[in-house]
Write a structure and sequence with these properties.
CATH superfamily: Ribonuclease Inhibitor
Number of strands: 16
Structural class: alpha/beta
Helix content: 10-25%
Strand order of the largest sheet: 2-4-6-8-9-10-12-14-16-15
Low-confidence stretches: none
Number of domains: 1
Order of helices and strands: HEHEEEEEEEEEHEEEEHEEH
CATH topology: Leucine-rich repeat, LRR (right-handed beta-alpha superhelix)
Length: 302
């Protein structure tokens, strides 16, 4: 057994044991995030890196990733002691993943090509950081599930208006998936209508499970194919329970426990499927077409 009070006494004459202890001790305390980055991806060689792999490295504290001119992808997930990240001057960065950390703050500046942003299961409270995306039309995949958004705001300030500028989104997750975090008061407080998403005409997958989004299904664009709208027992009374009937009535939504498209993410398997031909907009188009046909037939008769 390792003596953490006097660890060196365990391996004073055992170099292999000493190295083992050092690894265990570092893992226990974690690694300074900025120092780890410099040691493994030194600034002097930053021009040659295209991927930064920081996944599950026990990183601690604050991290600034700046000036890596050719980096296209950063994997930073599962560092549960990482509290803050700054992404600065990363002209080729397309994908950033920090799922499962403890981020309370993130700053994005001069990263014009980001198409995928995964910040699920953190401790973020404000969506202000999204204003740092100078080209919001580039973003296609946005994961904000399992955070602590709007914990200090009134309900009327917790709508989805901040998402309306991301017109090319294909996937959006703002759900609350974690029972234990909910019990601790850590969950996304999104309320109101889906109407702000009406111009996101490339949106295909949407998850609002266990949130208080409770109306506006008919405003969803006809591109939507699957919607996560479950209410778990521990989240009884969630507003999105009210939207299920609207989904079924106006969008023909139904549960189909299977992947319906090759590019569909695996976690969407059990979501509600939306039948495009039942979508309200499509119905209106068909009705107009029928009226025009009837009018043409009438003109021929007379």
């Amino acid at each position: 057994m390792i003596n953490y009070e006097n660890p060196f006494s365990n391996f004073i004459e055992d170099k292999v044991g000493l190295l083992k202890w050092r690894r265990m001790w570092n893992k226990r305390l974690g690694y300074n995030a900025q120092e780890w980055l410099e040691q493994n991806y030194p600034q002097k060689q930053k021009v040659k890196f295209r991927i930064l792999f920081l996944r599950n490295k026990d990183l601690v504290g604050k991290l600034t990733i700046e000036g890596y001119e050719k980096v296209e992808s950063i994997h930073c997930e599962y560092n549960n002691k990482l509290e803050s990240v700054k992404l600065v001057n990363l002209p080729e960065l397309a994908s950033f993943n920090a799922n499962g950390c403890s981020l309370k703050n993130i700053i994005i500046k001069d990263c014009p090509k980001i198409t995928k942003l995964n910040l699920g299961n953190n401790l973020l409270e404000s969506t202000e950081f999204l204003k740092g995306l100078n080209h919001p039309e580039k973003l296609e995949y946005l994961y904000l599930h399992g955070n602590n958004f709007n914990n200090d705001k009134k309900k009327e300030e917790c709508g989805l208006g901040f998402l309306s500028k991301f017109v090319n989104l294909k996937l959006l997750c703002i759900d609350n998936p974690d029972k234990e975090r909910f019990k601790e008061g850590i969950y996304n407080r999104f309320y109101g209508s889906l109407e702000p998403l009406k111009k996101l005409d490339k949106l295909r997958w949407l998850n609002i499970s266990n949130t208080d989004i409770d109306l506006g299904a008919s405003f969803l664009p006809i591109s939507v194919r699957k919607i996560g709208c479950d209410v778990d027992n521990w989240r009884g009374g969630a507003g999105c329970s009210k939207i299920i009937d609207e989904l079924k009535e106006k969008l023909g939504a139904k549960k189909v426990f299977q992947q319906i498209e090759a590019e569909e993410p695996g976690f969407a398997k059990n979501w509600f499927v939306v039948e495009p031909h039942v979508n309200k907009a499509n119905v209106m188009i068909l009705q107009c077409a029928k009226l025009l046909l009837v009018f043409d037939v009438f003109k021929i008769i007379i």
